[in-house]
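Thread: "does anyone have the structure for this chain?"

Original post by V.I.:
We have the sequence but no experimental structure in hand. Need at least a predicted one for the grant figures.
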Amino acid sequence: MKLYAQHGYGEGEKISQGLQKGLISGVVYGAKDINPDRLRERLGGIATSMPTAGRVLDPQYYVSLIGSDPNIRLGKLEEYPYFTVRRRSQLESNDLIKEEIRKVIEFQAGLPVSAIIAPNILISRSFDSVEAVIAKNFIRQAKGIYEEYSDKRPLYVTLAISREALIDFTELEAFLNDVTLLDKQPDGFYLLVGARSVEARTDLYNADVIAAWMLLNHSLKINGYEIINGYSDLISPFLGAVGGDIGCTGWWSNLRTFSMDRFAPESTGGRQPVQRYLCTKLLNRITFYELDALRRIFPEVVNGLSVDTEYLGEPERSIEVLQSWEALNSLLSTLTASSDPSRNVGKCTDAINYANDLYISIRARYRLDPKSDDSHLEALQEGMSLFKKRAEL
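Reply from O.Q.:
Generated one for you, tokens below.
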């Protein structure tokens, strides 16, 4: 599984450094946080200096249905020629859906991207809904429209699903049957799983959600599709283990968890979050001062990777995402290396068991910050067990 940067506000030189150091293999730009001219410039620079790097744009069309809210932060989205605020009832028209897809594809066709991402809306509550019907129409129409352009780059269609919709397994199965048996098949899916808030950790670290997310990757892969998992962060290895091709994560919490909440008004005040260190053995991030305290007693919390040298004390803020990408890449190379999902899942299970044992040892000597604790492990373990049952591995 490859790792892409999930772009957002405050890019600076992070993506350039990540690509140059080989910590990421590509980038998913987000339209909200970069204007079209700057986007073209950045994509062109990467295409010239690193032509093999993945370069795609999330058109973020799914925001169109909430764009009329006066409190919504559209950012640079309003500068894109394809973006128009829509009502759900308007998108019940197949002709309008075709027009919307065409506008998004036409814009991207003129960019130095390595693949095209077709638009879609978010399925916010249920697969048995008008939203799901609209979303399926976007998916069904995309390839046929793309063929009009004689473009040879891969086409990915957006599939954005809320965690509420994802946990109904019966409806998920029926939806999967529909989208995997298409007359005109895209090359892959840009898959987004939405939480209610970027801080709602338990929304995604939930056994049913993890099992369903893994099943989506597994089923789509079996049916010949490539899968880019947007905002998948630390769940990436478990998705890659069963077929996911690309995982994505960024430098803020709203680039590690997909939520429409990131388009809501910003909260005022508050301090910047403390720098954290992604520990591969704990499958989690701990604060830099927890790392300093623990490394003397439990040296295994140190990954032994190149960016670790920047964590001999408080690191520069720009270093945090580089360390995170390096550590996550290490996990991907370890846990997703086999073409046999059963073997990969076995490695994932071993990694969770090791993390659990290490947490038990740490708790006997040290009290961790709540975000650094082991509350994610039970959901991962139960989610994998549930996935194996449903996928009949």
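V.I.: this helps a lot. The first helix runs from residue 14 to 20.
O.Q.: and The CA atoms of residues 204 and 351 lie 19 Å apart.
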